[in-house]
TrEMBL record:
A Pfam cross-reference name: Aldolase_II
Family the UniProt entry places it in: Belongs to the aldolase class II family.
Gene3D superfamilies per the UniProt record, alphabetical: Class II aldolase/adducin N-terminal domain
Annotated SMART domains: Aldolase_II
Domain Class II aldolase/adducin N-terminal: 43-219
Residues in coiled coil: none
Official protein name in the record: Class II aldolase/adducin family protein
Length: 270
């Protein structure tokens, strides 16, 4: 006789295994009507600019986010020159052609800065959005002329999927920047900072924020000691799991919720 039976205690029942379901989440919307797609992209672009402003990723008149128009070839929506990110709505955005001419909107665009966006969009037709703005840790890493190292799981999303433009240009050369980016989702411009791209505004902005945060962790780890790198096999496996635009889109949605209705606050990492 078992001891628990001798003492008159009941054995707990074995737990019933709970079926494990695949994680389900809302997928990016698909629009058949170009006008609906345009309205969606402008809404996401304006919200992304407000978010970047709240995070402090803005420096005077520097910084732009652009998104390709779904209907008009070689035309892109972008924030106007000299307007605070945090105050922008869809109605404030400009439609600018590849030569920097404002097609729609009543304000000016920084043509020199926008030329980089146009060059990247032309070189990468699959890219919907480009982010080139200012953030402290990405700029600090750029001053070292280094790539993001696989020192954390999050950094592995960029493993062998970003590049370094290892030269400083007094003014960014659009063609050379686009060439340096190549097929990757992020570029570190030495002594300048970060540029990211994505198949949606959400993905491109998430990659910028993720790269900035990965740079922060890398710099802190280096200041504290010698970081232990994730090995090649582990870094590649992690990138394959978390490094796609769909994963970026999903990761961005909680941040989008903080600006979608004009409420909420976002803490800066600086």
């Amino acid at each position: 006789m078992r001891r628990d039976q001798e003492e008159g205690t009941a054995m707990p029942e074995q737990p019933v295994p709970v079926p494990v379901e695949r994680l389900a989440f809302e997928m990016p919307p698909v629009h058949e009507d170009p006008a609906e797609e345009r309205a969606h992209r402008k809404e996401r672009l304006a919200g992304a600019l407000r978010l970047l402003g709240r995070l402090g990723y803005e420096d005077g008149v520097a910084g732009h986010v652009s998104v390709r128009d779904p209907e008009f070839a070689d035309c892109y929506w972008v924030n106007p020159f000299g307007r605070a990110f945090a105050r922008l709505g869809p109605e404030d955005l400009l439609l600018v052609d590849g030569d920097g001419r404002v097609v729609r909107g009543g304000r000016r665009v920084n043509q020199l800065a926008f030329a980089v966006h146009a060059a990247v969009h032309r070189a990468r037709p699959e890219v919907a959005a480009v982010v080139r703005t200012q953030a402290p840790y990405g700029r600090a890493l750029a001053c070292l002329g280094e790539l993001l190292a696989p020192v954390s799981q999050e950094a592995c999303a960029f493993y062998e999927d970003h590049a370094l433009m290892d030269e400083f240009l007094g003014a960014e050369d659009p063609v050379r920047v686009a060439r340096a980016l190549g097929p990757y989702k992020a570029l570190i411009l030495r002594n300048r900072g970060l540029l990211t791209v994505g198949g949606s505004v959400d993905a491109a902005v998430w990659w910028f924020i993720a790269a900035e945060r990965a740079a922060q962790v890398q710099l802190i780890a280096r200041a504290a000691g010698k970081p232990v790198l994730i090995d090649h096999r582990g870094a590649v496996a992690t990138r394959e799991r978390f490094g796609g635009d769909l994963a970026a889109w999903a990761s961005y949605q909680p941040l989008w919720q903080t600006v979608a209705d004009g409420g909420g606050t976002v803490a800066s990492t600086s």
